Amino acid sequence: MQSPIYRCDNGHRICSSCKAKVLSKLCPSCRQELSDIRCPELEKMAESLVVNCKYKEFGCPEINIPYCTRSIHEDSCKFRQYSCPWSGHGWACPAVGDIPFLVSHLTQHHKAYLYNTSHFKRQFIFPDIYKHQTYTSVQTILNCFDRYFSLRAEGFLIGSIPVFKAFISLIGNQVDASNFRYSLEIRRNGEKWSFEGIPRSIINSESRDKMDGLIVMGSIVHHPGGETRDVNLDVSGGIWNPGLGCATLDG
What values do phi and psi take at 14, rounded to 5? Predict the structure, then answer.
């Protein structure tokens, strides 16, 4: 509970985040109408509380954090635990750890390629999604600006139409991710498809419903040949910090 804290006419307290969730606008305890009357004595008590970081057991040395700012610290804590973003064929990796662990895990366990660059050209090869009839993804790790980014390409079916999507996520929190921009591009037969946007955090990377990426339909990708219906997807692009300079694509 943190400021602002409100109370109803009968004195029942409710914090601002809980109040926003009460769609009826009635006090959950007495069903009286909720007002904007503040509860200063409880606000002062909440502001005086101190706690340890919840990632203390993983090595965070921060103690006596003001309760009202705990969530801000924990969101950016370098000992924060993240879920592994690797998934495919209806399976998601259960590994959890901090950023150094995840990078090591992705490159060693999942054999993800690691490139020390902010500019890239990468070919992704997808197994036959008609055969697997399921979602699959491939990832590459990019080390730049003293951070690690995941370049992720996904393939899935909408009805009988294959859809391929590429996007970049920061292996970190969304506040930090918002400091960066990225561009992606596919060129084929004289045509170009491109996208420019803000990286996601890997916390928010599991969503095919989001449209913040380069999306192409099956008609523009190509098969290596033979009997296989595996698909090649050639993606180029760059990452930049607007405060430091902009990325450019060749050609």
Answer: -155, 135
